[in-house]
User: What shape does this take?
Amino acid sequence: GNSVTQMEGPVTLSEEAFLTINCTYTATGYPSLFWYVQYPGEGLQLLLKATKADDKGSNKGFEATYRKETTSFHLEKGSVQVSDSAVYFCALSRTGGSYIPTFGRGTSLIVHP
Amino acid sequence: DAGITQSPRYKITETGRQVTLMCHQTWSHSYMFWYRQDLGHGLRLIYYSAAADITDKGEVPDGYVVSRSKTENFPLTLESATRSQTSVYFCASSDATGSTEAFFGQGTRLTVV
Assistant: This one.
């Protein structure tokens, strides 16, 4: 079946540090890939997405590239801010005729001033 | 207002009582989902629906019932609440076209005492 593996957290960084959160997936066919963010007390919201190999999704300074050869979709940001503190979920969907999203376990990011 | 809304936001109920969590979306998305979020478990799919009158079990369906008589509504009922059902519940919707990203409600924090 489909699965998403992302690095365990929490990830603790100082403001302006570089961020990488690793995500790898197993799926049939060619899924769409997503990163969602969840701020405290809120639901998940889409951060960025990529629908085919080599696509790069970007939003709010975050980027992730769809790497089919390594089945990865790592999230990066060059300079994090305190306001980026949240839980980040990698996910896939639209694969093998299924439209049910498959989520990773989530990675908590804590950014200190 | 456009979007996906859940009600109530917070609920405390007693063991053995029946409780229904409501979910309403305004986009006419075909797919709707119920997840529970617990520390250490990430998001777990309870039930999903591909269209009105079509529902199916997810990863953790025991003790829950769903219905979908109208495209826009997808209520989740706990028939006889147990303490292990204390959790944060999220409803989500998505379409089967385009990138199929999921849109989440704000969540319902349910406490069973």
Remarks:
- The mean pLDDT of chain A is 94.
- Chain A is about 0% helix and 50% strand.
